[in-house]
Design brief:
Chain A is α+β, with helices and mostly antiparallel strands. Helix content of chain A is 27%, strand content 22%. Chain A is built from eight helices and 18 strands. In chain A, the strands form six sheets. Chain A has a five-stranded antiparallel β-sheet with strand order 1-2-3-7-4, with helices on one face. A five-stranded antiparallel β-sheet of chain A has the order 9-8-10-16-11. In chain A, helix 1 crosses helix 3, helix 3 (130-147) crosses helix 8 (333-359) and helix 6 (230-239) runs antiparallel to helix 8 (333-359). The longest helix of chain A is centred in the last third of the chain and has 27 residues, at 333-359. The first copy, chain A, starts with a strand and ends in a 7-residue tail after the last helix. Chains in contact: A-B, A-C, A-D, B-C, B-D, C-D. At the A-B interface, strand 1, helix 2, helix 6, strand 11 and helix 7 of A face strand 1, helix 2, helix 6, strand 11 and helix 7 of B.
């Protein structure tokens, strides 16, 4: 179960960083949607290493291949398998990790769980695993644009380390996010962030930050009572990404500092549409979308791999020093933006199909 | 699927606030564990209304009845059904909600989803639904104490509104949590919190806050790669509780303000046990427990029900004013502590059985 | 998972024969369907003991109570919990089973699996467990009559021991099935079957037989490729009933004696509807319904409980003799007809919702 | 969900007959089992076309490639992806199927369900899909031989058309099954079957038959109460294979012709092992294995593809004649033996892990 996500639009990812490749199988996709490899490649390219001067220079082209489920350019309703072969694998660069547990990586915990691990490049714990998610979400986008054509998902970097941009989730545009290599839609702040990442990298260090995500044009009624609340599924989706440490929706942690009389979102009518004056709920009430913009924030810790000597232990229980080699991101956030976007799309696609199953269709998107 | 939680220790909750009752069916419980109603009642009593002067005075005794799955005091391995009859239901007190959508409640979204709702007391969205979870977790505790006897879960109030206690998750004791009615283990701060809740309630207003949870004695190796990471499942569990807006584990959002060289947890050996000098990871690395204390924080918004007139709309699309009647918590956190604890127990119990399925057993708890 | 059935219309049954009661929770039911206890009771009464002179005289009235999920006579879309209290439990009648393993019962295997069993009346293995399934299927019928109004499920006894009726699945009527106590729509053969069951019972012995089921008016397109084929799910459903030993659909085992040129169903057009001249496929091709009548047969072994002394062993490993006491069916088939019907309804309801999820709706029922 | 099988040892198959290839992802496999491609290839070779003179001469070599989940010859506990590229695809050979619905194939039903189909070689409905299952089961065998070393699964042809062999499931040997190309362990009858298949093929016709399967050395206690009974899961597994029409276990349909006094399996002690004198139960009682040999039978209809002109209809609703071209099996049973074996292994592997999850381990295999 562990390597699957979603109930009706269900994806199964597989693959290690330095094995034969990575990939995904998407089950439950509606039939007769147009789909080709270019539809998927566009998002993989936003995720891949080597795309700009502030990300890892690994030269993976992450070229995807659709192996099944598409016929003459249309989805068949059968499983869509996508394969991405690893190209720039240099397993020998990781030979020193064969016995050392890298601090704040999953080397020790995988060993504790399985009694074995693929030490080459982090194996299954590598961010490379997210390729399958991004590929699957590219298909999810096709489903959403067919069933909820007004729905749009925009994720972006809002903080890098101590540098905070202030972005309005109601108006932020995808084009602005993509207009710079750090994927912060505030161009001025983006320039400072880029500068900061370069400095940190030069120091052999790393930084984290915060990614925000806005979902506009959501039909009211998505999400389910009790366990599969939309915010619960979004939280799980976000926290399933590597390096994440927190999730908050709407007013979030700051909401705990308000009184009810300040926090409540009053309803009013806009034509025949029920709306709220404020949106501290973040577009979700009782686990179900209310048609307002969904927005949430995801905290990323600084990259664990740093180019400084650190104390650690070996598999054999010796205390040793370890200094990373290889090619790594000093800050994962620019490449994590399409990952957050992908997980959001996967959650929404699943809930759209669930809504159709139980309730037969949707409310019109506002 | 919506009303089920867990894969191997799977619970199904049911019930509305003002219907015949609420309950839970627990599937997958190991056999031959001692279990009686008193084992469950003790936690239901910590959750129930009317338990102290700062919670809602609804006079529910929440008496549980085990209907199946237990024979001569031992679990059978078959489903355990637990029923709690509603006693103090006064549906007429909610007659005015029949048409009005209460601000920041789920009245509108349930209607948008299902085209129908049980307007009596919030129906399925009532915190009353969590009774089933707390009951199921009382059984989960039996499983954990059988398989991981050193594991302990301690949840507590760390903030109410602007009042913040500083508690050490390594040492906080359950007895200190239960020593006062607000369930904050810092006695002095607890007194101030209680005072504050009373004041807020007198003003017809409400407040939220933050609950922290510490899990000590976790065997290394729990949790799964990729989607069912322990922190992802904990985040979903937490965000599935009513009124929650955020989740953070270990360094959380503050971790995004650190450099990698500050954030990384260095490994060292304590005898033959692998340990970390710091615990910014919060006891989980790569989605899998490392044997250090797991700790996380959950943000609760202020209770939506306030005793002040608020603008809203009716089911018929008229703009109206609504002022709540009835009996409500001005602050849900004291009663939410056993809920957070319960969801944590449910996640851990499921992962303990999953670990046993795939890997045959556990590492010894440190 | 074990005690759950269905993906989207998912039921969870619970309860032992001689515990507090039995019941079911139905998750995923569409909202706004009319439902009351009488809708369910009608099918429970067809299943219950004591309904005629040829079934066990246990005096259970099997009165159902809806505890949740229905409001003002309509389903809410939330879980529907149904409880049926055990009334005529006489656990002491089973005291001798405390240590003896009854031949061809599940006493030994439950012990082998769980190391414990509820020896009172068979515990969870009792046919009493099927009450929850029949109750859930009564709700499933509401879903089907809302979404596929022409669909009808008719199950009936076609054989008792060596007495075989020949019934046409295209024309058999529910009223004819219910017109006699053995539930065989051939009145003359039914009389012989009733006589035979009485004779067998007088001899302290038991008999089995075959139940057939016809489903007419099925929209083409239900069922799924590969694992969740409609016939695979029907086979699992049937074989999950107590005392079943075989399942065949369409031409079944006899189909293995034909040549392809004899077996193939030729297509032709009836107006704009695609039809087949013959129906050896049994209404399913490649796992998916083709709009022809689905029909299948389920073999039931003779009841294991007989009133003759039989050699067996005790829990302590002694070889002993055992002679049953208590009240038992000499032939379960008359009461198993509503069980087969129920499992069929559950499979179809689930697939109807699955079809709606992935494909947005149905083909019109022929 | 449709394309997945198993709960804890969960496989996801993908691929069409004439797309890029077929494959499978196996999730939940225990770690540290030795595995290489040769382990899998051996079973794929038993399933592949072109292996003997009585099966289709398609020249697929079905060469498997492990893409993930294995490191230095050992399973990692992470998903194992296996890819098999299609080599001998001649899609143009199927051009006439673009519009025609082949009788007793799934062409029409796929169109009715999805509104689209891959008409090349049957697409997803091709027996080629079973490659993924056979590959996954080769891994399942590794799990079983690690956890239940005495367990053995032997499937074999017992009937071809009207030719019936009588084989003892207690003693049948794998080597005898594999000693001839029809996979019937009765050498004399096998020779007649081979002759018969050749004659039928010469006539442009096809035949079906019956495959039996014996599972010896099963630990008591596998299988689960109620829905996931071992026989229910085996029935679903068998009926999920192409061309199957029936399943029976133990006494099967013939059991319905016996009295209880004839049918019951009496217990006795063999040393400290509980055994039954007869085995009409087929090794399963109340859904749970009792340690006796499990045996069941699966009916296969004659291959739908015959080389005779048959009336059918086109996608456009015209009545037409169709005569197959291409390369097809006149009898699928020799190649279906490893498929039945594979599905059996998948069911058992899943239940072995489920037993370990809930009950911590096994009874010793008798």
């Amino acid at each position: 179960m562990s390597n699957q996500f979603g109930h009706l639009f269900r994806i199964s990812t597989w693959g290690e960083s330095h094995g034969g490749g990575v990939g995904v199988v998407v089950d439950g996709c509606p039939p007769r949607l147009s789909l080709c490899e270019a539809d998927i490649q566009i998002d993989l390219d936003r995720r891949r290493p080597g795309q700009s001067e502030i990300v890892t220079p690994r030269a993976e082209e992450d070229r995807c291949q659709i192996l099944s489920g598409v016929f003459e350019g249309l989805t068949l309703g059968t499983p869509i398998a996508i394969n991405i072969t690893n190209k720039d694998a240099r397993p020998e660069a990781y030979r020193e990790m064969e016995n050392a547990y890298r601090p704040s990586h999953a080397d020790y915990t995988y060993d504790a769980k399985f009694g074995i691990r693929n030490w080459q490049g982090g194996g299954r714990t590598s961010a490379r695993e997210t390729i399958g998610r991004v590929a699957a979400a590219a298909i999810g986008k096709k489903v959403l644009s067919s069933l909820c054509p007004k729905l749009e998902v925009v994720a972006y970097v809002s903080s890098i380390h101590h540098l905070h941009a202030k972005i309005d989730p109601e108006t932020v545009q995808f084009a602005d996010v993509e207009s710079n290599i750090v994927r912060c839609p505030d161009a001025e702040m983006a320039a400072r962030m880029i500068e900061h990442i370069k400095e940190v990298r030069s120091a052999g260090d790393s930084v984290g930050g915060i990614i925000e995500c806005a979902v506009r044009g959501v039909p009211p009624g998505l999400g389910e009572p009790v366990f599969d609340r939309l915010e619960a599924d979004l939280a799980k989706a976000a926290l399933s990404l590597p390096a994440t440490k927190g999730f908050e929706i709407g007013s979030g942690f700051a909401g705990s500092l308000m009184r009810g009389s300040e926090h409540n979102d009053h309803f009013y009518m806009e034509g025949d549409r029920v709306r709220t004056r404020t949106n501290r709920s973040g577009g979700v009430q009782g686990g179900i979308s209310n048609g307002e913009t969904i927005f949430f924030r995801v905290a990323f810790k600084p990259t664990a791999t740093i180019f400084q000597s650190q104390p650690t232990v070996s598999r054999q229980g010796e205390e040793i020093e370890l200094k990373a080699r290889g090619r790594h991101d000093a800050c994962v956030l620019p490449r994590a933006v399409p990952m957050v976007e992908a997980m959001t799309v996967l959650v929404l696609t699943d809930h759209v199909l669930r809504q159709r199953a139980q309730n037969g269709g949707f409310n019109p998107t506002p």
